[in-house]
């Protein structure tokens, strides 16, 4: 990989000649005027706007179809003064949004001519504002240019603006500022204003002449599979090219329309929407892992007889249309929905897959479940996977990268549920626990599971940063504490509900109430966001409770232990702690309730790391 820097002039020239183009799989230009304005502010403040990444193509034999830069709202507006693609071109992988914006702003023909389109505008600098300050950049719709006398350079200068698509002529046009004929009679600004505007123009020209866009160029020896892997780790400042788009483009060459098939499956198999609405590459990971899980030890062959070893981007790209068709059959047969139901049963409740800790690890369950030969294997998988998943998340095992661990985890699950030591579940579970301990062991001396005391401390802490542990505890609340405390309704976050039924995480002792009544409760206010103070509720219940003390809510809703025991026990509040909740909310009572809940929750979470069903009911 080599790094080169292009000036504004060279960048425009290279795109115009076709030396720089886009790969056919690139997503559309999606920036709005707000994003373009932010880019220009950064540019005029001389701040770096990030490195672009390009991919050099072999002479006359590009790896993928090159296309011109265009605007989404009018594809007829394409940039480039060439009839045929040059024999050698470099394709922009990361930086499409920034480069398209630069072309749109700094050239005089790259915008729609119909003002109904979002990008049918021209850009100007305000000569009465310091470069980079608020108001220093102005965008004007093309149908407003002539009526506002901004369709000529002189007309713009007469009002204190300069068109950025004429940036290269700043030196030539600057004297126009001082010409009497530029202004209506009697409206020429004072000399000091003209000098200040001249200084702004000169500074703008200096900045634009000094502009350099760094581009990291990947060599022509890299194939599409290599580029797919690069996109998994590429840190972009624009709109990321999805690996899913790359896979679709590759499969399309062999007659398989992945994007359309995925869309149709979401209609035919309702559970499919869970596997890829937010990030459709999750669907491709599921297809590949299901294909491998038929026998993880064999590493099935993909395209060009290359082994599919895991779910790295190269393996996803190597997965053939045969694997996708195999998965389609599973999905439309109802087996995928059954597998999803078993996952919910495994965790004791429903949750949104892509909001969970390490969502990709859930594909391990589906892949193994869909390939399990007997009900006994599925029972073993549920017990083993829950323990694996809780440990994996609590120990933050995938934080340092899951791609290298995924294949070995798939093989571990496959081999462990098939241990033929006995038909007795308890005997198998004991051996599976030993195997899991060994599999999860990190450095010598590290515990193979998170201990109860540590979990309890984390549930009482407000310093738990967003990440796997935080997501797991949230998921645990949604799965296990799934009865509304005020209405006893079953809470279901997995599917879209009417707005009033949507599920929200609520503070038992509300932040709003503690803030108003903090005298003597300062420590409790500081701990208000701990998980021991959280419980899921419907939006209606949350709205009713959000600024009231629990004893007030219980009184107004006429809640007693006798008529509400089931939902409060579900949320780890027994008869003794219910008394604390119904009593005056003193600092002591609040602390006692949180400590009690944290202890009960920690025991259940610790037990979830065991290869058995202790702590979770599966009814």
Secondary structure topology:
Blueprint: E1 2-7, H1 8-17, E2 20-23, H2 33-44, E3 52-56, E4 66-67, E5 69-71, E6 74-79, E7 90-94, H3 96-106, E8 121-126, E9 137-141, H4 142-145, H5 153-158, E10 161-163, H6 170-173, H7 191-210, E11 212-218, H8 224-233, H9 243-252, H10 258-268, H11 281-292, H12 313-318, H13 321-332, H14 335-347, H15 362-370, H16 375-394, H17 403-417, H18 425-440, H19 452-459, H20 468-480, E12 503-507, H21 511-516, H22 522-526, E13 534-538, H23 539-545, H24 550-556, H25 561-570, H26 575-582, H27 587-607
Parallel strand pairs: 2-7, 3-11
Antiparallel strand pairs: 1-11, 2-4, 3-7, 5-6, 8-9, 8-10, 12-13
Brief rundown of the structure:
This protein is 46% helix and 10% strand. The protein has helices spanning 8-17, 33-44, 96-106, 142-145, 153-158, 170-173, 191-210, 224-233, 243-252, 258-268, 281-292, 313-318, 321-332, 335-347, 362-370, 375-394, 403-417, 425-440, 452-459, 468-480, 511-516, 522-526, 539-545, 550-556, 561-570, 575-582, 587-607; strands at residues 2-7, 20-23, 52-56, 66-67, 69-71, 74-79, 90-94, 121-126, 137-141, 161-163, 212-218, 503-507, 534-538.
Number of domains: 3
What is the helix content? 40-55%
What structural class do helix, strand and pairing data support? alpha+beta
Number of strands: 13
- Number of separate helices: 27
Low-confidence stretches: 235-240
General shape: globular
What is the CA-atom radius of gyration, in angstroms?
31 Å
Q: Walk across the major sheet and give the strand order.
A: 1-11-3-7-2-4
Describe the main β-sheet briefly.
6 strands, mixed
Average pLDDT, rounded to a whole number, is 86
% residues in beta strands? 5-15%
Alpha-carbon distance between the termini? 56 Å
């Amino acid at each position: 990989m080599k790094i080169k820097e292009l000036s504004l002039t060279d960048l425009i020239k290279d795109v115009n000649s076709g030396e720089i183009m886009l790969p056919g799989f690139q997503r559309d230009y999606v920036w709005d005027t707000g994003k373009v304005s932010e880019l220009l502010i950064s540019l005029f403040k001389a701040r770096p706007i990030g490195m672009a990444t390009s991919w050099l193509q072999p002479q006359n034999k590009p790896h993928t179809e090159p296309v011109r830069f265009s605007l989404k709202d009018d594809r007829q507006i394409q940039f480039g003064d060439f009839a045929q693609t040059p024999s050698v071109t470099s394709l922009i992988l990361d930086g499409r949004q920034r480069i398209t914006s630069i072309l749109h702003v700094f050239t005089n023909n790259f915008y729609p001519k119909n003002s109904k389109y979002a990008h049918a505008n021209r850009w100007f600098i305000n000569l009465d504002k310091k470069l980079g300050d608020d108001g220093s950049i102005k965008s004007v719709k093309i149908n407003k240019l002539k009526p506002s006398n901004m369709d000529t350079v002189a007309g713009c200068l007469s009002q204190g603006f300069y068109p950025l698509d004429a940036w290269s002529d700043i030196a030539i046009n600057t004297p126009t500022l001082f010409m009497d004929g530029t202004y209506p009679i009697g409206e020429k600004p004072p000399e000091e204003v003209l000098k200040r505007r001249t200084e702004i123009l000169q500074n703008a020209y200096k900045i634009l002449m000094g502009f350099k866009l760094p581009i990291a160029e990947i060599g022509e020896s890299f194939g599409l599979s290599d580029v797919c892997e690069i996109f998994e780790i590429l840190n972009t400042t624009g709109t990321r090219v999805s690996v899913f788009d790359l896979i679709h483009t590759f499969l399309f060459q062999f007659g398989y329309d992945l994007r359309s098939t995925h869309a149709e499956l979401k209609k035919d198999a309702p559970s499919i929407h869970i596997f890829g609405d937010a990030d459709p590459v999750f669907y491709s990971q599921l297809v590949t892992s299901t294909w491998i899980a038929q026998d993880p030890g064999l590493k099935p062959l993909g395209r060009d007889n290359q082994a599919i070893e895991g779910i790295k981007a190269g393996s996803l790209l190597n997965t053939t249309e045969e694997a996708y068709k195999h998965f389609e059959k599973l999905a439309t047969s109802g087996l995928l929905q059954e597998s999803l139901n078993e996952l919910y049963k495994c965790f004791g409740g429903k949750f949104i897959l892509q909001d969970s800790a390490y969502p990709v690890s859930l594909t391990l369950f589906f892949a193994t479940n869909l390939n399990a030969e007997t009900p006994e294997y599925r029972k073993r998988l549920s017990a083993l996977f829950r323990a694996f998943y809780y440990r994996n998340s609590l120990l933050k095992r995938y934080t340092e990268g899951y791609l290298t661990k995924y294949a070995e985890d798939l093989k571990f699950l496959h081999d462990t549920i098939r241990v033929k030591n006995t038909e007795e579940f308890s005997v198998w579970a004991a051996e599976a626990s030993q195997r899991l301990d060994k599999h999860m062991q990190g450095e010598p001396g590290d515990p193979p599971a998170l201990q109860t005391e540590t979990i309890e401390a984390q549930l009482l802490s407000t310093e738990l940063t967003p990440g796997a542990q935080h997501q797991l505890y949230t998921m645990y609340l949604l799965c296990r504490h799934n009865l509304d405390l005020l209405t006893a309704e079953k809470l279901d976050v997995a599917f879209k509900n009417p707005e009033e039924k949507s599920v929200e995480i609520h503070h038992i002792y509300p932040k709003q109430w503690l803030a108003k009544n903090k005298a003597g409760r300062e420590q409790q206010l500081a701990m208000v966001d701990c998980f021991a103070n959280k419980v899921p509720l419907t939006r209606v219940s949350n709205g009713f409770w959000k600024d009231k003390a629990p004893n007030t809510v219980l009184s107004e809703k006429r809640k007693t232990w006798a008529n509400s025991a089931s939902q409060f026990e579900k949320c780890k509040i027994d008869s003794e702690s219910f008394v604390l909740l119904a009593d005056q909310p003193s600092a002591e009572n609040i602390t006692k309730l949180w400590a009690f809940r944290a202890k009960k929750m920690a025991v259940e979470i610790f037990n979830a790391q065991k290869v058995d069903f202790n702590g979770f009911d599966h009814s």
